């Protein structure tokens, strides 16, 4: 679901072909200071460094990207309105989303399996959050900053994020502006982990300077 920002924001809901949901939209006010009991605020772009030294700009995304979360709601018995993954480049597996920023790593039916509670063999062991790897990719047409947040559509659980450190979950991902390195066919890449605590229907909201997109997925917890 993509909403382009020009004179306004156009909302395009990506629904599975068989879905005929008439759900309304829930608006969740969030800002850089938003927090929850077990999700931490990020240090902006510095989260991408995983605590090490790396070449990212200081600070984080501009304030205009902190739009309120505007996600679909599900009525009783309604199907999770996931979109079918599709190929956008030979470099990657199937991706989900209209772009220009898409998620890679969801299963064929846009399902994200994760282990909960995390077992001793998991990088998330000792954390209150399970998780699964998700690769974010940016189309060559967009070189601006990116903000990613999320929430559950059929419940009250949140979506957390991490980058290589399974001990801590954060409430957003922030990617700086820039171009892809040579040899990437113009695509930018951001490895990450999506952190979850319960099965259900969830959505990411991906915000850039010229767009706001919603990507719906289904999370399924497996038990050690």
What is the percent of helical residues? under 10%
pLDDT below 50 for ≥5 consecutive residues: which ranges? 5-24, 28-36
The number of domains:
1
Order of helices and strands: EEEEEEEEEEEEEE
Average pLDDT confidence is 85
The total count of helices amounts to 0
Gross CATH architecture: Sandwich
For the record, what CATH class applies? Answer: Mainly Beta
- State the secondary-structure class: mainly beta
Q: Give the distance, in angstroms, between the N- and C-terminal Cα atoms.
A: 34 Å
Beta-strand percent range: 25-35%
Q: What is the approximate shape?
A: globular
Radius of gyration: 16 Å
CATH topology: Immunoglobulin-like
Assembly classification: single chain
Query: What about the largest sheet?
Result: 7 strands, mixed
Secondary structure tally: strands: 14
Give the SSE layout.
Blueprint (H helix, E strand, L loop, with lengths): L1 E4 L3 E4 L12 E4 L40 E4 L22 E2 L4 E4 L6 E5 L14 E9 L7 E7 L7 E3 L10 E3 L12 E9 L3 E8 L3 E12 L2
How would you summarize this macromolecular structure in one to three sentences?
This protein has no helices and 14 strands. It has 224 residues and is mostly beta strands.
Characterization of the model:
With 224 residues, this protein is mainly β. The chain has one domain: Immunoglobulin-like (Sandwich), CATH 2.60.40.2550. The strands form 3 sheets. Strands 1, 2, 7, 9, 11, 13 and 14 form a 7-stranded mixed sheet that branches. Strand 5 and strand 6 form a beta hairpin. The termini are far apart. About 13% of the residues have low confidence.
């Amino acid at each position: 679901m993509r909403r382009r920002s020009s004179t306004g924001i156009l909302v395009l809901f990506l629904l599975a072909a068989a879905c005929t949901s008439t759900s309304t939209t829930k608006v969740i006010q969030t800002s850089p200071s938003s927090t929850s009991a077990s999700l931490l605020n990020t240090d902006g772009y510095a989260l991408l460094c995983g605590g090490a030294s790396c070449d990212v700009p200081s600070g984080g995304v501009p304030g205009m990207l902190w739009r309120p979360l505007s996600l679909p709601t599900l009525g009783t018995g309604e199907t999770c309105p996931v979109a079918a993954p599709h190929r956008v480049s030979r470099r990657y597996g199937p991706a989900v989303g209209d772009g220009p920023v898409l998620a890679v790593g969801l299963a064929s039916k846009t399902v994200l399996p994760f282990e909960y509670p995390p077992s001793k063999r998991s990088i998330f062991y000792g954390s209150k959050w399970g998780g699964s790897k998700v690769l974010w990719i940016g189309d060559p047409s967009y070189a601006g900053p990116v903000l990613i947040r999320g929430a559950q559509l059929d419940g009250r659980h949140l979506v957390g994020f991490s980058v290589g450190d399974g001990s801590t979950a954060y409430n957003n991902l922030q990617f700086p502006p820039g171009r892809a390195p040579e040899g990437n066919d113009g695509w930018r890449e951001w490895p990450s982990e999506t952190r979850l605590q319960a099965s259900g229907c969830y959505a990411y909201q991906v915000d850039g300077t010229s767009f706001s997109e919603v990507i719906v997925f289904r999370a399924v917890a497996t038990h050690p």
